[in-house]
Design brief:
The chain is of the alpha/beta class and about 150 residues long. Helix content is about 25%, strand content about 15%.
Length: about 150
């Protein structure tokens, strides 16, 4: 099973979070019917058939230990996975994997030219840019390498 966490927390201004990867549907098509479980908040867009809202961090840790691999944007999941020593794939756009990533993961960044100048500013001050993300084929190849 592949565990995915496709969204980062909603912005207070209602805008699209610049961490949210825009090509999930294409990635899922490229996984050729492999079992995928999406975790997230109940109000998030459900992009695959199987969706689970974990009631607590213990449940997230258990899912990480059970899955074959996991894929996430830069959100809470890579930090929990690091804690339980479960490497996976992290899709970065405008946040810097050399600051927020972990060496054991495959950290995907299209180009450093898209990184925010101030990596610690609030996300509401950053515009969503779908061009900042790697193509779906790169994500699919990274999943296959895990």
């Amino acid at each position: 099973m592949i565990l995915i966490s496709p969204h980062s927390k909603p912005l207070r201004n209602g805008g699209n979070n610049p961490k949210n990867y825009p090509f999930w549907r294409e990635v899922l098509k490229g996984l050729n019917g492999q079992k995928v479980l999406q975790i997230g908040l109940p109000e998030e867009e459900k992009i695959c058939k199987d969706f689970y809202f974990p009631p607590n961090l213990k449940s997230v840790k258990e899912l990480l230990l059970e899955c074959d691999t996991w894929v996430s944007v830069d959100n809470f999941l890579p930090h929990i996975a690091h804690h339980v020593k479960k490497p996976g794939v992290v899709i970065f756009g405008q946040s810097d994997p050399s600051i927020f990533g972990y060496k054991e993961n495959i950290n995907l960044l299209k180009s450093r030219e898209y990184l925010r100048k101030d990596q610690f500013q609030i996300w509401e001050q950053c515009e969503y840019n779908p061009d900042a993300f790697v193509e779906p084929g790169i994500v699919i190849d990274a999943i296959r390498r895990m």
